[in-house]
Inverse folding.
């Protein structure tokens, strides 16, 4: 019997009990849709993290103070005071392959204009911050090396702070704001950049010279971080190694002792975040795939019922010359057609669900071709796996006994 005829008979058999076929396929539909939605959400989260990492800057290396072991207490990021402006100058002077460098300190406080106030992050930075972060200005200019040297009271606003203090889209260049009761002249506004990989809003910040932040806002001499942008041809692993070696020497850290700083690249941060997201994606997809197994059991159950109902038909076909493998193929094709039809509908439902979830809940979701192919392949495999036993049982029937079946 030809394959096309086998498919035709399979479709007729499935249409004969349309309601039962639809209910059986529902398990496959739900399973495939759930897998696609879970994978789409995970892929979207991974894409958002990668976009957030890229938005911070290109070829970026970050040196953070902290993460050292001091006696029985392990210090965290920013907890130590050993990272200094002299370290930043030494890195700039002695480590080759650096394009931009910006020392940094961070605090959080209330910022006040003539008509409004806003609690935000105040970041002390070097004059090369816009190069390190690949961050152009929307209005005005960034502070200069001279401003850093003389600890000038000048400020550059992120777009969120500008909107809160002066109104959306305003150009506040030349205005005066107060940070901890000290007047600062606004000299520029940065273009909107959006969220970073860890979720913080990069635009909700005020940038001042790091020397100003140290002397007039924080009363400290140490740094919390140093942002570095490497030249395109420089391997980041080699650069981080040379920076770490220089800082260990400058800080007098003996061989085998814990560093009192951390040197990280954005690629390292991205790999940690995306690997965690990937693990969670496949975990959720695995949980969703349980419904596929349930759907497969439903297919096996309904095919066993079909074999019982059509015992006389099977006996008749075998008695007029049909081979065992023809009967096996017939029922196997019915199971596969049922699972593939459910898989196709499930794919459409999953894509629609992913789109609806991204619109309603503002979650990023990406339906990848790999997820679609995987779901469709799983549906076909389930049809073959769970359909084989009923098909084998039908093919093994004795023609005489089957003809006598009531």
């Amino acid at each position: 019997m030809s394959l096309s005829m086998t498919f035709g008979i399979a479709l007729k058999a499935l249409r004969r009990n349309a309601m039962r076929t639809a209910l059986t396929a529902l398990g496959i539909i739900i399973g495939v849709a759930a897998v696609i939605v879970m994978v789409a959400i995970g892929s979207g989260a991974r894409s958002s993290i990668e976009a957030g990492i890229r938005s911070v800057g290109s070829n970026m290396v970050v040196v953070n103070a902290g993460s050292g072991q001091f006696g029985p207490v392990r210090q965290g990021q920013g907890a130590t005071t050993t990272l200094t402006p002299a370290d930043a100058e030494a890195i700039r002077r002695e480590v080759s392959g650096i394009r931009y460098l910006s020392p940094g300190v961070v605090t959080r406080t209330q910022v006040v204009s003539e008509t409004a106030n806003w609690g935000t992050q105040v970041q002390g930075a070097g004059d090369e911050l816009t190069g390190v972060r690949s961050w152009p200005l929307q209005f005005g200019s960034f502070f200069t090396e001279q401003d850093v040297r003389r600890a000038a009271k000048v400020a550059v606003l992120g777009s969120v702070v500008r909107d809160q203090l002066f109104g959306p889209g305003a150009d506040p260049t030349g205005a005066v704001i107060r940070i901890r009761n000290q007047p600062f002249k606004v000299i520029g506004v940065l273009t909107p950049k959006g969220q970073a990989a860890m979720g913080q809003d990069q635009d909700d910040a005020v940038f001042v010279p790091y020397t100003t932040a140290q002397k007039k806002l924080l009363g400290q001499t140490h740094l919390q971080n140093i942002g570095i942008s490497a030249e395109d041809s420089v391997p980041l692993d080699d650069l981080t190694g040379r920076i770490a070696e220089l800082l260990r020497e400058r800080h007098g850290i003996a061989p085998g002792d814990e560093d009192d700083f951390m040197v990280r690249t954005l690629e390292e941060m991205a790999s940690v975040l995306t690997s965690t997201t990937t693990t969670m994606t496949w975990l959720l997809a695995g949980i969703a795939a349980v419904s596929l197994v349930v759907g497969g059991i439903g297919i096996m159950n309904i095919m066993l019922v079909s074999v019982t109902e059509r015992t006389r038909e099977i006996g008749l076909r075998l008695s007029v010359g049909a081979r065992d493998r023809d009967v096996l193929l017939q029922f196997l094709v019915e199971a596969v057609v049922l699972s593939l039809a459910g898989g196709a509908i499930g794919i459409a439902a999953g894509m629609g669900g992913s789109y609806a979830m991204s619109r309603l809940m503002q979650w990023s979701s990406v339906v990848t071709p790999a997820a679609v192919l995987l779901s469709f392949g799983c549906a076909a495999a389930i049809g073959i796996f769970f359909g084989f036993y009923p098909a084998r049982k039908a093919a093994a029937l004795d023609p005489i006994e089957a003809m006598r079946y009531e």
User: Anything to note?
Assistant: Confidence is low (pLDDT under 50) at residues 68-78. The longest helix spans residues 266-309. The chain has two domains: 3-51+271-404, 98-233. The chain is about 55% helix and 15% strand.
